[in-house]
């Protein structure tokens, strides 16, 4: 899958938990992040002045990307004073630039943009800001901080780190434990960050060694094919980390076809199918590390606050933050019921 159809470069600088948007949460284990359809409105849910938010999102060619669009729509519907001007999702940079320029010409109050390509859309972000329309840059970051008022997105390094620490804790008492990694597209910065976080976490567990790594491309078909290769090459290992729950569907098929159940599997992103399997506890899949699409709902909250000249509930500052990096929680059978509402199809 091309880079423009996936989550792009992430260089968030302020590691603020998603919980900070709604509560002053300082715990290392943030509270659950409800799905859009189940989200309570933010603490300041009394209608304020009318705000028109322009939303330019991605083409929904992946479960996570579809969830981004749905979270944005559902969140906006919770506010009677918010009008959402939404474009047709696109992975074509020229088309999306045109869509954003149309929203600028309509003089929307705030823009929320998940760019098909952050670098390519930087100029149109700058154009909006210069026109006095503040921009919430969602997930794939623009090349210049002048192109947005606030960036909000996921933590790819944190995904790998938390996956590695979870696996390390499960295997810490096992001598010469072996793990394998089913990564995403290697030409994406996000894949490199996830793998680096995973490698750094395993350094804390000298008895655990990564013995194999295979890159897939975030599809069911690639997950099945690449996992079959790993299984053939590695006759024995103790744990698998799969970067993406969509390709994890294929990986699980390959595992079942091979009749293997001698290791534990950790997924990534937080798909509903993965959470259902974790809850059922009838496969090797025991956990998934979140990359929450609820960030789109939070982006709408931030845009509303900007349009109404407000800060963020639970924070003392008069202004919204400049950058928010969401926490990558590990979902297991012990907490899956809390996170199931956030699972995406």
Automatic annotation (TrEMBL):
Region listing for Disordered, in residue ranges: 27-50
Domain Periplasmic binding protein: 53-310
Entry-linked SUPFAM superfamilies: Periplasmic binding protein-like I (SSF53822)
Superkingdom of the source species: Bacteria
Keyword tags: Signal
Record localization: Cell envelope
Gene Ontology terms: cellular component: cell envelope
InterPro entries the UniProt entry points to: Peripla_BP_I, SBP_2_dom, TAT_signal
Chief location bin: other
Coiled-coil annotated residue ranges, if any: none
GO molecular function, one term: carbohydrate binding
One Pfam family hit: Peripla_BP_4
Similarity remark: Belongs to the bacterial solute-binding protein 2 family.
Protein name: Sugar ABC transporter substrate-binding protein
Organism the protein comes from: Streptomyces agglomeratus
């Amino acid at each position: 899958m091309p880079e423009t159809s996936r989550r792009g470069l992430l260089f968030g600088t302020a590691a603020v938990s998603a919980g900070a948007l709604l509560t002053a949460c300082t715990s290392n284990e943030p509270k659950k992040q409800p799905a859009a359809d189940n989200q309570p409105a933010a603490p300041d849910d009394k209608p304020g002045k009318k705000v028109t938010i322009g939303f330019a999102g991605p083409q929904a060619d992946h479960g996570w990307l579809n969830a981004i669009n749905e979270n944005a729509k559902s969140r906006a519907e919770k506010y009677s004073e918010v009008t959402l001007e939404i474009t047709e999702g696109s992975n074509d940079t020229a088309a999306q630039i045109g869509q954003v320029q149309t929203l600028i010409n309509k003089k929307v109050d705030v823009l929320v943009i998940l760019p098909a390509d952050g670098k390519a859309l930087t100029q149109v972000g700058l154009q909006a800001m210069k026109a006095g329309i503040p921009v919430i840059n969602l997930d794939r970051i623009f090349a210049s901080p002048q192109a947005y008022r606030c960036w909000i997105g996921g933590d790819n390094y944190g995904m790998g780190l938390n996956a590695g620490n979870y696996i390390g804790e499960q295997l810490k008492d096992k001598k010469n434990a072996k793990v394998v990694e089913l990564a995403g597209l290697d030409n994406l910065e996000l894949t490199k960050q996830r793998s680096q976080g995973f490698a750094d976490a395993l350094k804390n567990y000298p008895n655990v060694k990564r013995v194999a790594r295979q890159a897939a491309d975030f599809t069911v078909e690639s997950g099945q094919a690449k996992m079959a290769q790993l299984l053939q090459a590695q006759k024995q290992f103790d744990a698998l980390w799969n970067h993406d729950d969509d390709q994890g569907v294929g990986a699980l098929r390959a595992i079942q076809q091979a009749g293997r159940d001698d290791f534990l599997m950790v997924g990534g992103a937080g798909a509903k199918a993965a959470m259902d399997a974790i809850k059922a506890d009838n496969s090797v899949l025991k956990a998934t590390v979140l990359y929450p699409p609820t960030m789109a709902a939070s982006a709408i909250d931030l845009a509303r606050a900007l349009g109404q000249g407000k800060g963020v509930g639970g924070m003392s500052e008069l202004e919204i933050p400049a950058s928010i990096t969401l926490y990558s929680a590990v979902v297991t059978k012990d907490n899956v019921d809390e996170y199931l509402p956030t699972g995406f199809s």
